[in-house]
Specification:
It holds the Pfam family SEFIR. Keywords: Cell membrane, Glycoprotein, Inflammatory response, Membrane, Receptor, Signal, Transmembrane, Transmembrane helix. This is Interleukin-17 receptor C isoform X2. This protein has about 700 residues and is α+β, with helices and mostly antiparallel strands. Helices cover about 25% and strands about 35% of the residues. Strands 2-5-6-9-3 form a 5-stranded mixed sheet, with no helix packed on it. Strands 4-8-7-10-11 form a 5-stranded antiparallel sheet, with no helix packed on it. The chain has a 5-stranded antiparallel sheet with strand order 18-17-14-15-37, with no helix packed on it. Helix 11 crosses helix 13 and helix 14 crosses helix 15 (about 660-685).
C-alpha cells in the first residue's frame, strides 16, 4: 500500500498565493479618471495599429506607466469570469516653444505667446490586449484642464474596466496615443489559475478539475487521479524551464480514474504536471511537486552534459535551470587537480541550453570547464581534448601587466603561481630562464590577452625528452594531417548533407487539417529538408505579426535557394479567389496566425509578374479536392497531388540534391506512411476513444 507523501489538488495551480478579488457587476466596459480629468470610452473595438512616431506640436499627453489589477466580472452570484483592470498613468510631454529660450528670457517676455498655453489638452489613448488566441483594443478619450498642464509633470490616470481573460493565460498589454508621440508601453502578465484564486465556487470552469494524489511507491512515484469513470481529461508532463518556453515530455488523453507510475530516475525539479477536462474552453491547471525533492536535484546533475561548440563555445545541456557558475581551469598532464584560471579570467553565470564563449584567443587540450555551485564542484570536462588531441606536457604562464608596462611572469602549479626567476624548488623555477626565452622567442602559444595580462602555454617536452623531439614532431605532424583530413571529410559530408529550405504555406481550415499539415512538415524534415511553417512559430507570429513573419521567412528561404510550398485546400482556394476577383477591395480580417492570408499580398504579384517558376511549388491532397480546383494562375508552377505524386513532389523540393529514383521512392514511401494516420483522421470519422486503464508514460508519446 503506497505511503501518503504529497497530497494536493491540481486546483492549487502553479501560484501558491491566494488572491481575493473585487467583483464587477454587469457586462459593460467602463472607464473612469483621476480627479480633475474627464474621460470617455468609445463604443466598439478599434484597429490595433500603433502607426509611426509623430513629432509633438507642443505639450501632449503620453502614457508613462501601466498597472493591472485582477477583478471578477459577475453575471450572477456563481457565474463570474476573470477580468483584467488596466490603469494608464499620463503625463505632459513637450513644450509650447523652445524650452532653452524660455529659460533664458523668461516666460512672460511675449504675452501673446502665453495665450495658447491656457488651454486644455486632449488625447486618444489606445489600450491593446492580447491573450492567445484573441486580441482586443479600446479607445479612451482623455481631457486635461489647463490648470494641470505642466510640461514633464504627471496629470493623473485613467482606469479601464476590464479585459476578460482565461485562467492561467499569458496576456500582453500595450498602450499608446493616436497619433503616437513615443514608443508604446507594454506589459506581460501571467494570470493565476483556479488554485491562485479564492473564487473556486464562483468560476464555473474551476468546478470540474480532477483531483491528484501524489504518493511514494518505493523509489518510484505514483500519480492517482480521482476522476469519475465517465469523465475524460488530458494529462501532460512537461519541463518548466525558467529560461525559455516549457518543454513537453509526455501527454495523453485519458478516462478516469487513472494510476500512473513515474520512475524515480525521471524526476527533476522542473517536472510539472498539467491536467484539464476534455471540454470546450476548459481550464488547464499545473503543479510542480518536485522542486524541493533531493532525488530530483541529484537526477538533474546526472542528466546535465557539457558539449563543445567550436571554435571556442560550449554549452551545458540540462532539462532544468541550474544555479551554477562556470570557469576555465588548467589540467596538467600529471593528473593533479584542475587549476582554476580565476583570476585573471572571470567566472560566468551558467545559462543552460545556451551557447557560451570564454575569451580565449586559441584553444588548448589542457583547458577545461568547471561547473560548480556554492556547495561543491559538480561537473568538469576538458571539452577541447577530443578535437585538439590528448593533454600536453605544457606549462601555463600567467603574465601580469602593471600601469607602466612593467609586467611579471609566473607559472601556474598546484602550489600556486611560481615566479619564473625565483629560487623555489619547483620545476618552473628551475627552468625559469628557459621559459622566459621561449615566451620572448614566440615558442609559447598565447591563449588569452588583454590590457591586464596574458596566458601562455609553453611546451615542456623538449626539456625532458630531447632525443625524442623528431619522433614527437613526426607524430604531431601525422596527427595534424589526419585531423585536417578528418575536418575536410566532415566539411564534405556536411556540405553534401546540407538540406534545402522549404517554407510551407497553408490555410488553417480546421484543427484536423492543421494536424495533417504538421504531420507533413515533420515528415519532410526527415528527408532532410529545413521546413518553416507557422504552426511551429506561434510565439514569433504573436510578436511580429503574420505578414512580417512571412516576409522574413520568404526572404530567408529564397536567399538560401529554397522553395515556397503552397498547400491548397478549399479554404486556401476560397482566399485566392477572393483576392483575384476583387484585388482593389481590402481583404477580410483573418486570424492573427493566418500566414497564408497575410502572404497573398506578396505571393500573387510573383505569379502575376512571372517570377514564380523555380521559387514556388503547389500541392493538394487528392482526397480533399480535385486537381481543377486549383486556380489557373497558380498552375504556372508544378502542382502535385498528395500522396499519389509524392516521389515527384519530393524530387522537386530537394532540387539538384535529390537522390536517385530508387532512393527517392523509398523516401516517398516513408513520408506516405508518416502521413497515413493524419490522413485517416482528417478525411474519415475518428475512431471511438479507448477506455484502457493504468496508462503511464510508457503508453503515451514522449515529446
Amino acid at each position: 500500500m503506497p505511503v501518503p507523501w504529497f497530497l494536493l489538488s491540481l486546483a492549487l495551480g502553479r501560484n501558491p498565493v491566494v488572491l481575493s478579488l473585487e467583483r464587477v457587476v454587469g457586462p459593460q466596459d467602463t472607464a473612469r479618471c483621476s480627479p480633475g480629468l474627464s474621460c470617455h470610452l468609445w463604443d466598439g473595438d478599434v484597429l490595433c495599429l500603433p502607426g509611426s512616431l509623430a513629432s509633438a506640436p507642443g505639450p501632449v499627453l503620453v502614457p508613462t506607466r501601466l498597472q493591472t489589477e485582477l477583478v471578477l466580472r459577475c453575471h450572477e452570484e456563481t457565474d463570474c469570469d476573470l477580468c483584467v483592470r488596466v490603469a494608464v498613468h499620463l503625463a505632459v510631454h513637450g513644450y509650447w516653444g523652445d524650452p532653452d529660450k524660455e529659460e533664458k528670457f523668461g516666460r512672460a517676455a511675449d504675452p501673446e505667446l502665453e495665450e495658447p498655453r491656457n488651454v486644455s489638452l486632449q488625447a486618444h489613448v489606445v489600450l491593446s490586449f492580447q491573450a492567445y488566441p484573441t486580441a482586443h483594443c479600446v479607445l479612451l478619450e482623455v481631457q486635461v484642464p489647463a490648470a494641470l498642464v505642466q510640461p514633464g509633470q504627471s496629470v493623473g490616470s485613467v482606469v479601464f474596466d476590464c479585459f476578460e481573460a482565461a485562467l492561467g493565460a499569458e496576456v500582453q498589454i500595450w498602450s499608446y496615443t493616436q497619433p503616437r508621440y513615443q514608443k508604446e508601453l507594454n506589459l506581460t502578465q501571467q494570470l493565476p489559475d483556479c488554485g491562485g484564486l479564492e473564487v473556486q465556487d464562483n468560476i464555473q470552469s474551476c468546478w470540474a478539475l480532477p483531483w491528484l494524489n501524489v504518493s511514494a511507491d518505493g523509489e518510484d512515484v505514483r500519480l492517482v487521479l480521482d476522476v469519475s469513470e465517465e469523465q475524460r481529461f488530458g494529462l501532460s508532463l512537461y519541463w518548466n524551464q525558467a529560461q525559455g518556453p516549457i518543454k513537453p515530455w509526455w501527454h495523453s488523453n485519458l478516462t478516469g480514474p487513472q494510476t500512473i507510475t513515474l520512475n524515480h530516475t525521471d524526476l527533476v525539479p522542473c517536472l510539472c504536471i498539467q491536467v484539464w477536462p476534455l471540454e470546450p474552453d476548459s481550464v488547464r491547471t499545473s503543479i510542480c511537486p518536485f522542486k524541493e525533492d533531493p532525488r530530483a536535484h541529484r537526477n538533474l546533475w546526472r542528466a546535465a552534459r557539457l558539449q563543445l561548440l567550436p571554435p571556442r563555445g560550449w554549452q551545458l545541456d540540462a532539462p532544468c535551470s541550474l544555479p551554477a557558475e562556470a570557469t576555465l581551469c588548467w589540467q596538467a598532464l600529471d593528473g593533479g587537480p584542475c587549476l582554476p584560471l580565476v583570476p585573471p579570467l572571470p567566472r560566468e553565470n551558467v545559462t543552460v541550453n545556451k551557447v557560451l564563449e570564454f575569451p580565449l584567443l586559441k584553444g588548448h587540450p589542457n583547458v577545461c570547464v568547471q561547473v560548480s555551485t556554492w556547495e561543491k564542484l559538480q561537473l568538469q570536462e576538458c571539452l577541447w581534448a577530443d578535437s585538439l588531441g590528448p593533454l600536453k606536457d605544457d606549462m601555463l604562464l600567467v603574465e601580469t601587466r602593471g600601469p607602466q608596462d612593467n609586467g611579471s611572469l609566473c607559472a601556474l602549479e598546484p602550489s600556486g603561481c611560481t615566479p619564473l626567476l625565483s629560487r623555489a624548488s619547483t620545476r618552473a623555477a628551475r627552468l625559469g630562464e628557459q621559459l622566459l626565452q621561449d615566451v620572448q622567442s614566440g615558442q609559447c602559444l598565447q591563449l588569452w590577452d588583454n590590457d591586464l595580462g596574458a596566458l601562455w602555454a609553453c611546451p615542456m617536452d623538449k626539456y625532458i625528452h630531447q632525443r625524442w623531439v623528431l619522433v614527437w614532431l613526426a607524430c604531431l605532424l601525422l596527427a595534424a594531417v589526419l585531423f585536417l583530413l578528418l575536418l575536410l571529410k566532415m566539411n564534405h559530408v556536411k556540405a553534401a548533407a546540407r538540406s534545402r529550405a522549404a517554407l510551407l504555406l497553408y490555410s488553417a481550415d480546421d484543427a484536423s487539417f492543421e494536424r495533417l499539415v504538421g504531420a507533413l512538415a515533420s515528415a519532410l524534415c526527415q528527408l532532410p529538408l529545413r521546413v518553416a511553417v507557422d504552426l511551429w512559430s506561434r510565439r514569433d507570429l504573436s510578436a511580429q505579426g503574420a505578414l512580417a513573419w512571412f516576409h522574413a521567412q520568404r526572404r530567408q528561404t529564397l536567399q538560401e535557394g529554397g522553395v515556397v510550398v503552397l498547400l491548397f485546400s478549399p479554404g486556401a482556394v476560397a482566399l485566392c479567389r477572393e483576392w483575384l476577383q476583387d484585388a482593389t477591395s481590402a481583404p477580410r480580417a483573418h486570424g492573427p496566425h493566418d500566414a497564408f492570408a497575410a502572404s497573398l499580398s506578396c505571393v500573387l504579384p510573383d505569379f502575376l509578374q512571372g517570377r514564380a517558376p523555380g521559387r514556388y511549388v503547389g500541392a493538394y491532397f487528392d482526397k480533399q479536392m480535385p486537381a481543377d480546383a486549383v486556380p489557373a494562375l497558380f498552375r504556372s508552377v508544378p502542382v502535385f497531388s498528395l500522396p499519389s505524386q509524392l516521389p515527384d513532389f519530393l524530387g522537386t523540393l530537394q532540387g539538384p540534391a535529390a537522390p536517385r529514383p530508387r532512393r527517392l521512392a523509398e523516401r516517398a514511401e516513408q513520408v506516405s506512411r508518416a502521413l497515413q494516420p493524419a490522413l485517416d483522421s482528417c478525411f474519415r470519422p475518428p475512431a471511438a476513444p479507448g477506455t484502457g486503464r493504468g496508462m503511464g508514460p510508457e503508453a503515451g508519446d514522449r515529446t
